[in-house]
């Protein structure tokens, strides 16, 4: 079965696709549930690796999840495309990655929110669990009032309205200027109905589903009053709890990406701290990885704290990437798919500030692209609202154009991102046995020499943060001897520290470049055994994998 790009998948279609792959590719693809959503749907985790060359947990891994936010369907499509690519591609780099690394992919973290959104077209941020109130607030709630499957905007003429038609394209509404006194002005409201209306005032009610599952993670978490959508305590929500437990149980994760929309950008930690607070090697590696992400996908790579704040004086609390990097010491990214602005040819714009404020010319440029790619903007049409009387419906389709690319653009948008996932897999540390040799030293004694190497680009510890947080253990080497043999020097279990990677070797002109064999180590034993005895070793590192060798004395 191949992934389709002409629609967004329902949970049933998603499940059917994953089950089909599990039976089609038994040696490369496995499917398991990591827990149940609030409404009881299984949250699927896919594991892709060639199990003929080793078990999934004995090799470094990339962890990717998508659609923690209900309406960000593009993320699930991108995750499915990645899985499809890993299973079907003949590219030798893909084959090498699947032979030596593991991909863990959760294609839809929030199946309840996604299915609800597909069914009624109404924007909801995340989970469907009512929070913090369990009954609706008074005021306007978004809803599809005319039953056409879209939740757009309502407008009505109002001498005190804030909006006026664009002179060149009256479909578009632009802000009334501070000194505008004459003209047709409009009031604009989200399409919906008003709960307990007093007939005059229209507050916009906070949605019943007030959670944001990407504010419910354990690092830098803050309660509701400080961080909207945070939930009652970190990992209070079953979807986040399932992810956190699945991640903690997979100690081989070296890199992580959460798939979101929109902005067309790769985001890295921290959310709430300056780059100055990184250990220097980690920031350097983040920047190198980010540059490659940009080369592969065309999306800029930026710090959330420095370049992606929603409010200049507020930072995001309880997000996933901070936890992954800060507590687990793995490289963590958010990919925000799709930039309507870039599609419209705009290049010099700030991701967040533009949304809040941009010129009427920019508005028309994006409207033009929406027309070309699909029906992202709906011309105003009359409707008799049950409460407000005659109004017009129309405007931006936030779900189909802003929060997701039009379907005609979906495949093109997600495709390059499989290459970034592949890159993240291939830069991980990779433990290898360079040699395992013996020499007789007399009196039935034999010297054993084991040389281990890290063949990867990153060090075995992956980040300095992992050392600082004491979350990464040294290489552990177990020597296995036959009955009757004994160790005369050395221990049955040796620890072999961390091994460096090539990451710090970037310029031969830099006089302090480490030209040592820091990626290599030697472990020695003296054993007393009979000639012809078999001796074996197993070297394990939680992140860099496990390797085995055997020799005959
Ligand atoms: Zn999101």
Task: Write structural notes for this entry.
The chain has an eight-stranded mixed sheet, sandwiched between helices. The longest helix is centred in the middle third of the chain and has 18 residues, at 280-297. It has helices at residues 11-24, 73-88, 92-100, 111-120, 238-249, 280-297, 304-307, 320-328, 340-343, 351-356, 360-373, 398-402, 407-414, 417-426, 464-468; strands spanning 29-36, 42-48, 61-66, 102-106, 139-142, 153-157, 163-165, 173-175, 186-190, 192-195, 253-261, 265-268, 301-303, 331-337, 377-385, 389-396, 431-442, 445-454, 476-480, 486-489, 493-495, 520-528, 534-541, 545-552. The chain is α+β, with helices and mostly antiparallel strands and 553 residues long. It has 15 helices and 24 strands. 26% of the residues lie in helices and 27% in strands. The two termini are 51 Å apart. It folds into three domains: 11-120 and 210-338 and 406-426, Zn peptidases (Aminopeptidase), CATH 3.40.630; 139-207 and 370-398, no CATH class; 431-552, Sandwich (Immunoglobulin-like). Bound molecules: zinc ion. Zinc ion binds next to loops.
